Fold:
Amino acid sequence: MSGRDPIFDDLRTMYEVLDPPPEHLVEAMIAAVAAEYLDAEYELLTMTQRTTELTGVRGAGPLTIEFAYDDVTVLIRVTDGPGEGTRRIDGWITPVTDGTVRVVHGDAETTSALTAGRFEVAEIPVGLIRIWFDVEGRDDLATPTFEI
Structure:
């Protein structure tokens, strides 16, 4: 045993006998820890491009992000929004389609029309977002969660 108080060893033995941990606990914890940053890893795997271009001496220009999955490509341009702490999103999806775009940010959701493969969200709070595309013939088409 160790150099600690023997009562701790007795307590440990008692709990191991009377209330042992579930057999699957170790595997479940390993899986939970491994899956903790799965969205970030998925974004890195599927994001084909993310750039900021300098537009002058005093600041950075728009943020451009491109996602690709199978035959679908999504290009997003993020610029400063009209209000403090907001961003504007302009986006394009190919193949060109019509539908609805839902931008999920926290517990809130902003909806925009997807017309001829183009959508825009004029004002959205800074932070983590995920964009869902509701289009005919496609289920669960979305970007990974990313930060604007």
User: Anything to note?
Assistant: The chain has a mean pLDDT of 84. The first helix runs from residue 6 to 18. Residues 8 and 14 are 10 Å apart (CA to CA).
